[in-house]
Amino acid sequence: MRRGTALVAALCALAGAAAVTLAVVAGPGPGLTGYVSEAGVVDSSYAWTYRIGVFALAGALLLLAVALRVGASHCHDAALRVAVTLLVAASLCTVLSGAVTCSAGCPLPPFERATVADLVHGAASVAATAAVVFAMLAVAISPVARRRLRRTGVVAAAVSLPLAGAVGLAMLLVGRSPLVGVLERLLLTVAVGWALATAATLVVRDPTAHEHGEPTVREPTVRRRR
Protein backbone atom coordinates (compact mmCIF):
# COMPACT_ATOMS: atom_id res chain seq x y z
CA MET A 1 0.00 0.00 0.00
CA ARG A 2 2.84 2.39 0.82
CA ARG A 3 4.59 1.84 -2.48
CA GLY A 4 1.42 2.15 -4.55
CA THR A 5 0.31 5.30 -2.74
CA ALA A 6 3.74 6.90 -3.08
CA LEU A 7 3.87 6.03 -6.78
CA VAL A 8 0.48 7.62 -7.43
CA ALA A 9 1.59 10.65 -5.41
CA ALA A 10 4.65 11.05 -7.64
CA LEU A 11 2.55 10.73 -10.79
CA CYS A 12 0.05 13.29 -9.51
CA ALA A 13 2.87 15.70 -8.67
CA LEU A 14 4.35 15.32 -12.16
CA ALA A 15 0.98 15.74 -13.88
CA GLY A 16 0.02 18.70 -11.70
CA ALA A 17 3.31 20.48 -12.21
CA ALA A 18 3.09 19.92 -15.98
CA ALA A 19 -0.48 21.26 -16.16
CA VAL A 20 0.29 24.36 -14.08
CA THR A 21 3.45 25.04 -16.10
CA LEU A 22 1.50 24.74 -19.35
CA ALA A 23 -1.14 27.15 -18.08
CA VAL A 24 1.49 29.67 -16.95
CA VAL A 25 3.62 29.47 -20.10
CA ALA A 26 0.91 29.20 -22.75
CA GLY A 27 -1.73 31.30 -21.01
CA PRO A 28 -2.26 35.05 -21.49
CA GLY A 29 -0.58 35.91 -18.20
CA PRO A 30 2.12 38.58 -17.78
CA GLY A 31 4.98 36.07 -17.61
CA LEU A 32 7.58 36.45 -14.88
CA THR A 33 6.17 39.81 -13.79
CA GLY A 34 3.04 38.22 -12.36
CA TYR A 35 2.00 35.51 -9.92
CA VAL A 36 1.58 31.87 -10.91
CA SER A 37 -2.06 32.11 -9.81
CA GLU A 38 -2.82 34.57 -12.59
CA ALA A 39 -2.97 31.61 -14.97
CA GLY A 40 -6.14 30.51 -13.19
CA VAL A 41 -8.25 33.66 -13.45
CA VAL A 42 -11.66 33.22 -15.04
CA ASP A 43 -10.74 35.15 -18.21
CA SER A 44 -7.78 32.88 -18.95
CA SER A 45 -8.29 30.24 -21.62
CA TYR A 46 -6.12 27.91 -19.56
CA ALA A 47 -8.01 28.43 -16.31
CA TRP A 48 -9.23 24.86 -16.07
CA THR A 49 -5.81 23.51 -17.04
CA TYR A 50 -4.40 25.46 -14.13
CA ARG A 51 -7.12 24.28 -11.74
CA ILE A 52 -6.73 20.64 -12.72
CA GLY A 53 -3.00 20.97 -12.13
CA VAL A 54 -3.53 22.55 -8.71
CA PHE A 55 -5.99 19.83 -7.69
CA ALA A 56 -3.54 17.16 -8.88
CA LEU A 57 -0.82 18.73 -6.70
CA ALA A 58 -3.24 18.74 -3.77
CA GLY A 59 -3.87 15.04 -4.34
CA ALA A 60 -0.13 14.42 -4.47
CA LEU A 61 0.38 16.07 -1.08
CA LEU A 62 -2.46 14.08 0.49
CA LEU A 63 -1.20 10.79 -0.96
CA LEU A 64 2.31 11.61 0.20
CA ALA A 65 0.98 12.09 3.73
CA VAL A 66 -0.81 8.73 3.54
CA ALA A 67 2.30 6.96 2.23
CA LEU A 68 4.44 8.50 4.96
CA ARG A 69 1.92 7.57 7.65
CA VAL A 70 1.27 4.03 6.44
CA GLY A 71 4.94 3.26 5.91
CA ALA A 72 6.14 4.61 9.25
CA SER A 73 6.97 1.76 11.61
CA HIS A 74 7.63 4.21 14.47
CA CYS A 75 4.27 5.95 14.77
CA HIS A 76 5.25 7.50 18.09
CA ASP A 77 7.73 9.85 16.40
CA ALA A 78 6.39 13.37 16.86
CA ALA A 79 8.29 14.84 13.91
CA LEU A 80 6.78 12.43 11.39
CA ARG A 81 3.32 12.94 12.85
CA VAL A 82 3.77 16.68 12.44
CA ALA A 83 4.96 16.19 8.85
CA VAL A 84 1.90 14.10 8.01
CA THR A 85 -0.44 16.67 9.59
CA LEU A 86 1.24 19.52 7.73
CA LEU A 87 0.98 17.69 4.40
CA VAL A 88 -2.73 17.09 4.95
CA ALA A 89 -3.21 20.77 5.82
CA ALA A 90 -1.20 21.78 2.74
CA SER A 91 -3.42 19.59 0.58
CA LEU A 92 -6.61 21.15 1.92
CA CYS A 93 -5.24 24.67 1.50
CA THR A 94 -4.18 23.84 -2.06
CA VAL A 95 -7.70 22.68 -2.86
CA LEU A 96 -9.06 25.94 -1.47
CA SER A 97 -6.52 27.90 -3.51
CA GLY A 98 -7.64 26.16 -6.69
CA ALA A 99 -11.34 26.44 -5.93
CA VAL A 100 -11.28 30.17 -5.10
CA THR A 101 -9.69 32.03 -7.99
CA CYS A 102 -8.31 35.53 -7.75
CA SER A 103 -9.35 38.45 -9.90
CA ALA A 104 -7.29 39.80 -12.80
CA GLY A 105 -3.73 40.49 -11.65
CA CYS A 106 -4.32 38.69 -8.32
CA PRO A 107 -4.05 41.97 -6.37
CA LEU A 108 -2.83 41.81 -2.79
CA PRO A 109 -2.28 44.46 -0.12
CA PRO A 110 -0.53 46.70 0.74
CA PHE A 111 0.02 48.04 -2.80
CA GLU A 112 -3.26 46.96 -4.44
CA ARG A 113 -6.91 46.81 -3.45
CA ALA A 114 -7.97 43.18 -3.11
CA THR A 115 -11.36 41.49 -3.11
CA VAL A 116 -12.45 38.88 -0.59
CA ALA A 117 -11.70 36.14 -3.15
CA ASP A 118 -8.22 37.58 -3.67
CA LEU A 119 -7.53 37.49 0.06
CA VAL A 120 -8.89 33.96 0.47
CA HIS A 121 -6.92 32.70 -2.51
CA GLY A 122 -3.73 34.44 -1.40
CA ALA A 123 -4.01 33.25 2.20
CA ALA A 124 -4.70 29.66 1.11
CA SER A 125 -1.73 29.68 -1.27
CA VAL A 126 0.62 31.10 1.35
CA ALA A 127 -0.61 28.63 3.98
CA ALA A 128 -0.20 25.67 1.63
CA THR A 129 3.35 26.64 0.72
CA ALA A 130 4.29 27.30 4.35
CA ALA A 131 2.88 23.94 5.43
CA VAL A 132 4.95 22.11 2.81
CA VAL A 133 8.13 23.95 3.85
CA PHE A 134 7.59 23.10 7.51
CA ALA A 135 6.82 19.49 6.54
CA MET A 136 10.25 19.36 4.90
CA LEU A 137 11.78 20.61 8.13
CA ALA A 138 9.84 18.09 10.23
CA VAL A 139 11.08 15.18 8.12
CA ALA A 140 14.61 16.58 8.23
CA ILE A 141 14.72 16.57 12.05
CA SER A 142 12.96 13.24 12.51
CA PRO A 143 15.18 10.94 14.59
CA VAL A 144 13.71 7.78 13.04
CA ALA A 145 13.42 8.70 9.36
CA ARG A 146 15.75 7.17 6.83
CA ARG A 147 18.95 9.04 6.07
CA ARG A 148 17.90 9.72 2.48
CA LEU A 149 14.60 11.26 3.57
CA ARG A 150 16.35 13.44 6.15
CA ARG A 151 18.96 14.62 3.65
CA THR A 152 16.28 15.49 1.10
CA GLY A 153 14.38 17.41 3.74
CA VAL A 154 17.49 19.25 4.92
CA VAL A 155 18.45 20.37 1.40
CA ALA A 156 14.91 21.34 0.46
CA ALA A 157 14.30 23.23 3.72
CA ALA A 158 17.67 24.99 3.49
CA VAL A 159 16.71 26.30 0.05
CA SER A 160 13.01 26.91 0.73
CA LEU A 161 13.23 28.85 3.99
CA PRO A 162 15.33 31.73 2.58
CA LEU A 163 13.20 31.76 -0.58
CA ALA A 164 9.98 31.88 1.43
CA GLY A 165 11.32 34.74 3.53
CA ALA A 166 12.45 36.60 0.42
CA VAL A 167 9.04 36.16 -1.22
CA GLY A 168 7.27 37.50 1.86
CA LEU A 169 9.53 40.52 2.15
CA ALA A 170 9.33 41.25 -1.58
CA MET A 171 5.52 41.13 -1.51
CA LEU A 172 5.43 43.56 1.42
CA LEU A 173 8.17 45.92 0.22
CA VAL A 174 8.02 45.72 -3.58
CA GLY A 175 4.68 44.22 -4.49
CA ARG A 176 3.82 42.59 -7.80
CA SER A 177 7.07 42.55 -9.77
CA PRO A 178 9.51 40.31 -11.69
CA LEU A 179 11.40 39.78 -8.42
CA VAL A 180 8.37 38.25 -6.72
CA GLY A 181 7.49 36.27 -9.83
CA VAL A 182 10.92 34.65 -10.09
CA LEU A 183 11.21 33.94 -6.36
CA GLU A 184 7.72 32.44 -6.24
CA ARG A 185 8.46 30.11 -9.14
CA LEU A 186 11.74 28.99 -7.57
CA LEU A 187 10.02 28.25 -4.26
CA LEU A 188 7.24 26.23 -5.90
CA THR A 189 9.81 24.30 -7.96
CA VAL A 190 11.69 23.29 -4.81
CA ALA A 191 8.43 22.24 -3.11
CA VAL A 192 7.38 20.04 -6.01
CA GLY A 193 10.91 18.63 -6.31
CA TRP A 194 10.93 17.69 -2.63
CA ALA A 195 7.54 15.99 -2.95
CA LEU A 196 8.75 14.00 -5.94
CA ALA A 197 12.02 12.97 -4.27
CA THR A 198 10.24 11.97 -1.07
CA ALA A 199 7.60 9.98 -2.95
CA ALA A 200 10.30 8.21 -4.97
CA THR A 201 12.09 7.21 -1.77
CA LEU A 202 8.87 5.88 -0.27
CA VAL A 203 8.23 3.79 -3.38
CA VAL A 204 11.49 1.94 -2.80
CA ARG A 205 11.89 1.78 0.98
CA ASP A 206 10.12 2.06 4.30
CA PRO A 207 10.53 5.61 5.62
CA THR A 208 11.63 4.67 9.11
CA ALA A 209 13.93 1.67 8.67
CA HIS A 210 17.41 2.84 9.63
CA GLU A 211 20.22 1.48 7.52
CA HIS A 212 22.62 1.71 10.44
CA GLY A 213 20.15 -0.01 12.75
CA GLU A 214 19.79 -3.12 10.61
CA PRO A 215 22.20 -5.96 11.34
CA THR A 216 24.57 -6.70 8.47
CA VAL A 217 25.84 -10.05 9.76
CA ARG A 218 23.68 -12.70 11.33
CA GLU A 219 25.08 -14.39 14.36
CA PRO A 220 25.04 -18.19 14.23
CA THR A 221 22.51 -19.89 16.40
CA VAL A 222 24.03 -21.71 19.34
CA ARG A 223 22.40 -24.97 20.20
CA ARG A 224 22.48 -26.09 23.75
CA ARG A 225 23.55 -29.61 24.50
CA ARG A 226 21.63 -31.52 27.04
TrEMBL record:
Domain of life according to the entry: Bacteria
| Record's keyword annotation contains Signal | yes
Tell me which positions the record assigns to the signal sequence: 1-26
Its transmembrane ranges are: 47-68, 80-100, 120-141, 153-174, 186-204
* Stored InterPro entries: DUF998
Which parts form a coiled-coil structure per UniProt? none
What is the protein's given name?
DUF998 domain-containing protein
What lineage is this protein's organism placed in? Bacteria, Bacillati, Actinomycetota, Actinomycetes, Micromonosporales
